[in-house]
Amino acid sequence: QVQLVESGGGLVQAGDSLRLACTAHGRVLSHYAMGWFRQAPGKEREFVAAITWLAGRTYFADSVKGRFTISKDNYNNTLYLTMNNLQPEDTAKYFCATTPTRGNFHSQNEYNFWGLGTQVTVSS
């Protein structure tokens, strides 16, 4: 089974940028898409962004559209989330996930493997 490991989280000021990375380890049969979700204390986990692995089609939540960019390194099985103009409302634990099949990439139910997350904290 695949193991996903996120990195790059930290404490930043509002307006700063940060890049998260997620590397897949172990047995990886294939990716159809990989995505980023986030969860703040007391709130449900929400969709952030996703990208299809071969075609590179991207999807974004309205709350991050225009500020965040999702990208990938196919050869190294690594997913990135570049976050620009971070705001306090972006504070959350960020998780990456992968799915081998087509579906609704906005739904966490479509993803079968998850990392343990990396914390992003944005101060005002």
Would you mind describing this structure in some detail?
This protein is mainly β. It has no helices and eleven strands. A hairpin with a 6-residue loop joins strand 4 (33-39) and strand 5. The model has no long low-confidence stretch (mean pLDDT 93).
- Cα(first) to Cα(last) distance is 40 Å
Question: Taking Cα atoms only, what radius of gyration do you get, to the nearest Å?
Answer: 13 Å
Could you say which structural class the secondary elements and strand pairing correspond to? Answer: mainly beta
Largest sheet: 7 strands, mixed
* Low-pLDDT regions: none
Per DSSP, the total helix count is 0
Q: What is the string of SSEs from the N terminus onward?
A: EEEEEEEEEEE
Principal-axes shape call: globular
Rounded average pLDDT = 93
Tally of extended strands? Answer: 11
Strand content: over 45%
Helix residue percentage: under 10%
Describe what is shown at a glance:
This protein has 124 residues and is an all-beta fold. Helix content is 0%, strand content 52%.
What is the secondary structure topology, with strand pairs?
Blueprint: E1 2-7, E2 10-13, E3 18-26, E4 33-39, E5 46-52, E6 58-60, E7 68-73, E8 78-83, E9 92-99, E10 113-114, E11 118-123
Parallel strand pairs: 2-11
Antiparallel strand pairs: 1-3, 3-8, 4-5, 4-9, 5-6, 7-8, 9-10, 9-11
